[in-house]
Design a protein that fits this description.
The protein contains 14 helices and 16 strands. The protein is α/β, with parallel strands linked by helices and about 400 residues long. The chain folds into two domains: about 220 residues, 3-Layer(aba) Sandwich (Rossmann fold); about 170 residues, Rossmann fold, CATH 3.40.50.2000. Strands 5-6-2-1-7-8-9-10 form an eight-stranded mixed sheet, with helices on both faces. Helix 1 packs across helix 14, helix 4 packs across helix 5 and helix 8 crosses helix 12.
Length: about 400
């Protein structure tokens, strides 16, 4: 069975899926990373120093775009190809031609599985009109403050649910909340599945043996990832300020690219709060997570979280808002805690408990390190098995 995984972003979760699928002897798998010339970075992949030309890159060229750590993780288990569009616009003649070229390459596979959305995706679907396709939808609804950025993606998601998966295409949702709501609200929905992703083990391969600029940055609390309004950073800062009256030496690091949607005087708490406002390389992220005690996600809304699954992969507990898929993976008192969203007082109370209760952080950490802290459906072996069953069902339909 020949599978093409075609990913528009979400580079860390899809490569983990690819590796766990590729160990099955019945699977021949190729992973296609789709980028555009104006978008060079996506978590584990940074192509900003590469000479990028549009079109498909062969296996050797593509391997050169991957870091040494990623190539080690792949370990020849599957092939990776890069394909570059001119931009992400649907109304681009160049992109239409490029979509045709990519679709001709994809037609040779039994299954084409798209991961995420992109402006060129409708053209790829059009040129692959005779194939039954699989779509993994990461954000069915837009995050707060990002509605204008995701207009095409949200329109595509709604059209897919309304028409395509009622006929022959298949969609995968990665958190139970969205899956349940879609099934409840969409009439006569078919071909919709819940299959999550597991701990993002790829980050274990970015372990830094030598000292780098982040090695001395130790923290008690860490918030990392793209800076956006839905991350709820203002609630974290308010609760952290109150926490300092009890524990004046606590350290908080906020790390990620993007702009805050509110003003804040970080100089006032320069001894306690460090804001690293830039894209964080995977090697540096590894150090930041390993050098913290607790990862915090005070989000106002969410779907599933790569941040939580990165923290778990690196052995760190998580305190997060009870939104989206966090309740799927965070078990109170086992691997972290859930708190009411948009409530800085509730967040403060949980953080005070975590730092006050003797050995609580250590107990949470040990639960994660021992590996028995997630429901079985979030283990990669089970995830890969469920996808293989899904792929085989498609071939039978054909």
């Amino acid at each position: 069975m020949k599978i093409a995984l075609v990913s528009f972003g979400h580079a860390d979760s899809i490569i983990s899926l690819a590796r766990n699928l590729s160990v099955n002897k019945d699977i021949y798998l190729d992973l296609y990373y789709v980028f555009s010339k104006n978008h060079f970075k996506n978590n584990i992949i940074d192509l900003s120093d590469k000479d990028i030309r549009i079109g498909l890159k062969n296996e050797i060229e593509s391997k050169g775009y991957l870091s040494q750590q990623i190539n080690k993780y792949i370990n020849s288990g599957f092939k990776v190809f890069f394909f570059f569009f001119y931009n992400q616009k649907i109304y681009s003649f160049t992109n239409i031609i490029l979509s045709l070229k990519l679709s001709l390459k994809l037609r040779k596979y039994h299954i084409v599985h798209f991961n995420g959305t992109n402006g060129v995706l409708p053209w790829l679907i059009f040129f692959l009109f005779r194939k039954t396709l699989v779509f993994t939808i990461h954000d069915y609804h837009p995050h707060s403050g990002e509605e204008a950025k995701t207009t095409h993606g949200q329109l595509f998601n709604k059209m897919l649910m309304k028409y395509k998966i009622k006929s022959r295409h298949i969609a995968v949702i990665q958190n139970k909340t969205d899956f349940t709501n879609i099934v409840k609200n969409e009439n006569k929905i078919r071909n919709l599945y819940f299959i999550p992703f597991g701990p993002l083990e790829i980050y274990e391969y970015f372990r830094v043996d030598n000292i780098n600029s982040f090695s001395d940055l130790k923290s008690d609390l860490l918030l990392f990832g793209r800076i956006s309004p839905y991350k709820g950073i203002e609630y974290l800062l308010k609760s952290f300020e109150k926490l300092l009256s009890f524990y004046p030496d606590l350290k908080l690091i906020i790390a990620g690219a993007g702009e805050l949607h509110f003003s804040y005087n970080f100089d006032k708490y320069s001894n306690n709060i460090k804001f690293i406002n830039k894209f964080i390389r995977s090697e540096d992220l590894y150090v930041l997570v390993k050098n913290t005690k607790l990862v915090v996600c005070p989000y106002t809304d969410a779907t599933q979280s790569g941040v939580a699954m990165t923290a778990f992969a690196l052995g760190k507990p998580v305190v997060a808002s009870d939104v989206g898929g966090f309740s799927d993976v965070i078990l109170n008192g086992v691997n972290g805690f859930l708190v009411e969203p948009k409530n800085s007082e509730a967040l403060f109370n949980i953080l005070l408990k975590v730092f006050s209760e003797n050995n609580l952080i250590e107990r949470l950490t040990q639960n994660i390190i021992k590996g028995q802290f997630l429901p079985e459906e979030f283990c990669w072996d089970n995830i890969a098995t469920n996808y293989i069953k899904l792929y085989k069902s498609i071939i039978k339909i054909k």
